[in-house]
Design a protein that fits this description.
The complex is a heterodimer.
Chain A lengths: L6 H6 L12 H41 L4 H6 L1 H7 L12 H17 L2 H9 L5 H26 L6 H8 L2 H12 L13 H4 L1 H16 L11 H13 L9 H13 L8 H8 L6 H9 L7 H6 L2 E4 L2 E4 L7 H32 L2 H16 L2 H12 L4 H9 L14 H25 L3 H9 L4 H29 L3 H6 L7 H10 L4 H25 L9
Helix pairs in contact in A: 2-26, 4-5, 5-7, 6-7, 7-12, 7-14, 8-13, 11-12, 17-18, 17-21, 17-23, 18-21, 21-23, 22-23, 25-26
Chain B lengths: L10 E8 L8 E8 L4 E5 L6 H9 L6 E6 L2 E2 L10 E4 L11 H10 L5 H14 L15 H13 L5 E5 L7 H18 L2 E6 L2 H7 L2 E6 L2 E6 L1 H6 L4 H6 L4 E11 L2 E6 L4 E6 L8 E6 L12 E12 L3 E8 L2 E9 L12 E6 L4 E4 L2
Parallel strand pairs in B: 3-8, 3-9, 6-7, 7-8, 13-19
Antiparallel strand pairs in B: 1-2, 1-4, 4-5, 9-10, 11-12, 11-14, 12-13, 14-19, 15-16, 15-18, 16-17
The chains are: A mainly alpha, B alpha+beta.
The structure holds adenosine-5'-diphosphate (ADP) and magnesium ion.
Magnesium ion (MG) binds next to helix 1 of chain B.
């Protein structure tokens, strides 16, 4: 007879443990936990989404912008490809094919008005490129005009928009566009005539772009003058394909045949020569080196600039002595943030100590005074500082009256680093006091009493027993104050003058004034990395577990 | 007043008063002499001023009035760190950022003792509390009982002659508490130190102390050795506070020397020892310990009783009954062979000796 097996021994037998309904216990547990997790997730989902949208995504976007450089390859794609084979170290400007590619790129960019933005972008890397691109933008149309005039000398028809539209457009499109013009509505999307793309490839391409843009502007290609570059393309196409006339509309075939016969005798100037004519800087390899160096879709250029470095043909080098600002600014920001953190500790510690030892009623009153800076508007506070700190201000008056400083050597207390330190200490002090206070509040008075009963003087009891236990509060307050300080913008802007500004002010400048968002993003990313690095060092040295907010 | 410190007044509270707010006296006219080597416990309900007294002795509170003397010298103006008094706090107050060894070395360090001497002393102190292997640990890594031992060792390591303990065992469970009571007593006996001990646990006070000062409302109600305190309470508060007590309220009808006759409310009369009562016609409270009541009419004082409730406690049976209209009269019936078996609702006799019945203040 088998011995009776109780439920207890059942459960301890090998094999999966089953719950009451026979499913494995592990699965039931997971199911129960899953439901719990889902509930927790649903509870934090709104915050999660909020943080994602307002914090993670912008930071991601910023990090992306700091390396993103697609503007060059998007604006002058052919040039970027053509430059690939050019040896930047040759000391000579590139060959004709690069200038040709550049011409077609610029022709389109000028019509789309994107060449100035590209010039602006490249100007960050090499001063002068912005105006060079602007000047060149005005010059490229002259190149097309040069060929247009020669074609117009053969026949005035060449200058007519309707003539080219009729010659190059599909018949169905031409009639539809004519109808549309009669009815005063926008013509349908442009369609090339069969065979034109093969016979006149350059012309077909640039004319299509012209037609598309004209239509986008609600004008008709039948009435608008074609871009000058179309004539450059016609010249090139007719030179290489004298039989192109067979592809165009029968009505235009005659003119095309004539032109094909005439173009070999046209006056022709190479693109390179034309560009050098526009500005001799185009003969200088340096401009091309810059374009080539920044032609990739992603670049470290902004980060180099943010570290006072630059890309040169000989590799990465430091910028000129007098242009090195960012490293110095970072250094100053860190130094002053540390200084502010230090003054906050010095001023905040005794207050927090007092607060934590006062009766609740008195402590509340003092707390209100501590929090007062939070409750006054920034403008009121700033004007108060100005009134107090300026050279004819209250504090200087007082010092002169007391006789501590002479009337002719009043102290400069605002619009310099001292002003920033004073004002920011004032603003950030509560962030030091509050964590300190809440940590000190948890230190029982019996510790100090115990120390004294063991023979420690007041000072020893404080320094050896009380202070070490308040260190977590100092840690929390310091992290808070330091991280807030290092990214502070508005106060240094208002009271820092020129010597008391922070890296954030430079970032703000690049965002709103110079519009160099890439550099702003790189500086911001560096600030972020810096804060994270300091946080890491802090964690290694103090231990983040030792940070208590209460 | 002589300055020589006779062994009997090592610690002296001389008409000490204390008020925190200038309105209420937390300690009212305290007079207490503690001999060298004595173990004195301050026992009393919470809020009765025990900690305040201890803090005044340690120097953390200033007496509003009166004089506190240690070894014959007034210490009113001596700061706490110069008093050389060891102290064990209720929450132990071990410094959390120091190891056990550093905690113990602290009082030696601030006294400028050199390192080798320090280490030797710390080692000895740790061994005394059987914690020799724990010098490298942090207080947070110790159990409550272990922390307690360390706190004790720290208060003793610098050879203080006087050690104050404020409810040092309050946070421990019953078993550990009893064990530690024994150990503390043992250490006291071995070292010959003077201990002032504060507790609100009467059994702790009774088991450990040479003398117990019973506090109530800032006043010492009785200062006596434990057996006196239990067997010869001098007033109603002490009788009620220490141990279990039967009280019978009544009026004094006559007096012969030390013996008074009392008309107990509810009809009976009893003779009692006149301990702390007024004259004829005044109210009094008779105090009789439950174990001194017998279930027969052998004693000179006795009456009928109605059994209301029986609780079986193993070694004895607790019996609540109504005696002369007082329905909270407790009798302990020892679970001896052939003891009388009571049933609820039964009427029985109770009686007691006159010496076991004390007439106290009403
Ligand atoms: N620091 C203080 N400030 C004001 N009142 C106090 C203070 N400490 C104790 N008290 C009051 O004094 C009385 C006695 O307290 P305490 O000596 O701690 O009693 P015990 O230790 O016997 O419980 C209590 O009523 C308490 O509220
Ligand atoms: Mg107390």
């Amino acid at each position: 007879m088998a011995p009776p097996v109780s439920n207890m021994t059942d459960a301890t037998q090998t094999g999966p443990v089953l719950s009451a309904d026979g499913t494995p216990l592990k699965r039931s547990l997971q199911k129960a936990l899953f439901r719990q997790k889902m509930r927790a997730l649903a509870l934090i989902a709104p915050l999660l989404i909020f943080v994602l949208v307002t914090f993670i995504l912008p930071i991601g976007d910023m990090l992306f912008r700091s390396v993103e450089n697609q503007i060059v390859s998007a604006t002058i794609p052919r040039t970027v490809v053509a430059l690939e084979t050019w040896d930047a170290d040759s000391g000579e400007s590139p060959g004709e094919e690069v200038y040709a590619a550049f011409y077609w790129d610029m022709a389109e960019a000028v019509e789309a008005k994107t060449h100035t933005r590209l010039g602006g972008r490249l100007n960050y890397e090499m001063t002068g490129l912005s105006s060079l691109f602007r000047k060149t933008g005005r010059g490229v149309s002259d190149i097309g005009e040069f060929y247009m005039d020669q074609l117009a000398d053969l026949n005035d028809e060449w200058e007519e928009g309707a003539f080219l539209a009729d010659a190059l457009g599909a018949e169905s499109w031409v009639s539809a566009a004519t109808d549309a013009a009669a009815n005063d509505v926008t013509a349908p999307a442009f369609v090339l005539r069969d065979g034109v793309a093969d016979a006149l490839p350059l012309t077909a391409h640039i004319y299509s772009r012209f037609a598309a843009q004209t239509l986008a502007e609600k004008d008709s290609p039948l009435e608008e003058d074609p871009w000058e570059a179309v004539y450059t393309a016609l010249y090139q196409d007719l030179i290489s394909n004298p039989n192109a006339a067979s592809a165009v509309s029968p009505a235009a075939a005659n003119l095309f045949t004539d032109a094909a016969a005439a173009v070999p005798n046209f006056e022709n100037i190479g693109f390179k020569e034309q560009f050098i004519d526009i500005d001799k800087d185009w003969d200088d390899p340096e401009a091309w080196q810059t374009i080539q160096a920044y032609s990739s879709a992603y670049t470290a250029g902004y980060f180099l600039a943010a570290m006072d470095l630059m890309n040169t043909p000989d590799g990465i080098a430091r910028v000129d002595e007098d242009e090195r600002i960012y490293i110095r600014l970072f250094g100053r920001t860190i130094f002053m943030s540390l200084l502010i953190t230090g003054t906050c500790i010095l001023l905040g510690y005794p207050i927090a100590y007092l607060l934590s030892n006062l009766k609740v009623r008195h402590a509340n009153l003092l707390m209100i005074l501590v929090l007062l800076p939070f409750w006054t508007s920034l403008l009121v506070r700033t004007s108060a500082w100005k009134v107090l700190l300026q050279q004819q201000g209250v504090i200087n008056d007082l010092l002169v009256w007391v006789g501590l400083v002479a009337d002719d050597s009043r102290l400069q207390l605002i619009n310099n680093q001292l002003g920033t330190v004073i004002a920011m200490t004032h603003i950030l002090l509560p962030f030091m006091i509050l964590p300190l206070f809440s940590v000190m509040k948890t230190i029982p008075p019996s510790y100090v009493r115990a120390a004294k009963s063991l023979g420690a003087t007041n000072w020893t009891a404080f320094w050896r027993v009380y202070f070490p236990q308040s260190v977590p509060g100092i840690g929390a307050g310091s992290i808070l104050v330091f991280i807030l300080a290092i990214g502070y913008y508005i106060t240094p802007e208002l009271v820092g003058g020129t010597s008391g500004v922070f890296i954030s002010n430079r970032i703000a400048y690049h965002i709103s004034t110079s519009l160099n968002w890439g550099l702003a993003a790189a500086l911001g990313a560096m600030l972020l990395v810096l804060v994270l690095a300091l946080y890491w060092i802090y964690d290694k040295m103090v231990g983040i577990d030792n940070v208590k907010l209460g | 007043m002589s300055l020589d410190s006779s062994a009997d007044d090592f610690v002296v509270f001389d008409h000490v008063q204390k008020s925190y707010d200038g309105e209420v006296l937390v300690v009212k006219d305290l007079n207490l002499n503690i001999a060298k080597g004595e173990f004195v416990t301050m026992l009393g309900p919470s809020g009765s001023g025990k900690t305040t007294c201890l803090m005044m002795l340690a120097g953390f509170e200033v007496a509003t009035h009166g004089d506190i003397r240690l070894g014959g010298k007034s210490i009113n103006n001596i700061p706490p760190h110069k008093r050389g008094i060891g102290m064990v706090f209720q929450n132990y107050a071990l410094f959390p950022h120091m190891t056990v060894g550093e905690n113990l070395a602290f009082p030696l360090e601030v006294r400028g003792m050199n390192k080798s001497e320090r280490e030797a002393k710390v080692k000895r102190a740790l061994e005394m509390v059987q914690m020799g292997d724990f010098a490298g640990r942090r207080p947070a890594q110790l159990s409550g009982g272990q922390q307690q031992r360390i706190a004790l060792a720290r208060a003793l390591v610098f050879d203080a002659e006087l050690v104050l303990m404020d409810e040092p065992l309050g946070a421990l469970d019953k078993q550990l508490r009893e064990h530690m009571q024994y150990e503390i007593k043992h250490i006291h006996d071995n070292l010959g130190i003077t201990v002032v001990y504060v507790t609100h646990d009467q059994s702790e006070a009774l088991t450990m102390s040479d003398r117990v000062a019973v506090f109530n409302d800032g006043v010492i109600k009785q200062l006596a050795p434990p057996d006196d305190l239990y067997e010869r309470p001098e007033n109603a508060f002490v009788a009620q506070f220490i141990g279990e007590n039967n009280k019978l309220l009544g009026t004094i009808t006559g007096r012969e020397g030390d013996i008074v006759s009392v008309d107990v409310e509810g009809g009976m009369t009893s003779k009692a020892l006149a301990v702390n009562c007024g004259g004829v016609g005044e109210k009094t409270m008779l105090s009789i310990r439950p174990e001194r009541v017998t279930l027969n009419s052998d004693g000179p004082n006795g009456t009928e009783a109605l059994v209301k409730e029986l609780i079986y406690l193993g070694d004895h049976i607790r019996c609540r009954m109504t005696v002369s209209g007082h329905d909270d009269f407790i009798v302990k019936v020892p679970n001896a062979a052939g003891h009388q078996h009571l049933v609820v609702g039964e009427r029985t006799k109770v009686s007691w000796q006159t010496e076991d019945c004390r007439a106290l203040d009403a």
